[in-house]
Design a protein that fits this description.
The chain is about 25% helix and about 25% strand. It is of the alpha+beta class. A hairpin with a 2-residue loop joins β4 and β5. α1 crosses α2. This is Protein phosphatase. It comes from Sesamum calycinum. Its cofactor is Mg(2+); Mn(2+).
């Protein structure tokens, strides 16, 4: 992700193509291993994303989820990943766009991100919760109860209409 940050440094958000950022970051990464990834750009009322594997994002309006990015899986618990030891490449990332995203500001984004990450970590360690991972395991014919302890990253942002758009 540090290579992704370098790829967009100094660029206007409207000029950022998430899939190109993902490809550029991948080509400049020499570290061993592999990873899923999600790159998002928000500019001009438009959200653009490139998502590889079981990373992902939600669009929430008025407290309700209106969009959830789909996961890319080769099979149960086997997400697409890019890296030195993987079979997937950034070109396989799914691209998504959502237009006109408006959220009501209720808390600071960093407070929301921390609370969501803490809740996700707690759920991941529960042994009896009906988690999305437990449901996917059941659908794949695998016996698993509770969450899945995994790396968790949450980034929260509010997309708001500038006051200048309301002037008549």
């Amino acid at each position: 992700m540090s290579n992704a940050a370098k790829a967009v440094h100094g660029r206007h958000p409207a000029d950022v193509d998430p899939k190109d950022v993902l490809k550029d970051a991948f080509l400049k990464t020499g570290a061993p291993g592999s990873s899923t990834a999600c790159i998002i750009s928000i500019a001009g009322g438009r959200l653009r994303a490139a998502n590889l594997g079981d990373s992902g994002f939600l669009v929430i309006r008025g407290g309700k989820t209106v969009y959830k990015s789909p996961a890319q899986l080769h099979g149960f618990n086997y997400p697409y990943q890019m890296g030195s030891t993987s079979v997937s490449l950034p070109d396989e990332a799914e691209e998504m766009e959502t237009v006109k995203l408006y959220l009501k500001k209720e808390s600071l984004p960093e407070v929301v991100a921390f609370a969501l990450a803490r809740a996700a970590r707690k759920k991941s360690m529960e042994k009896t919760t009906a988690s999305p991972f437990a449901v996917a395991a059941y659908e794949a014919g695998v016996e698993h109860f509770g969450g899945k302890y995994d790396d968790i990253t949450v980034v929260a942002a509010y997309v708001v209409v500038p006051d200048s758009l309301y002037l008549t």
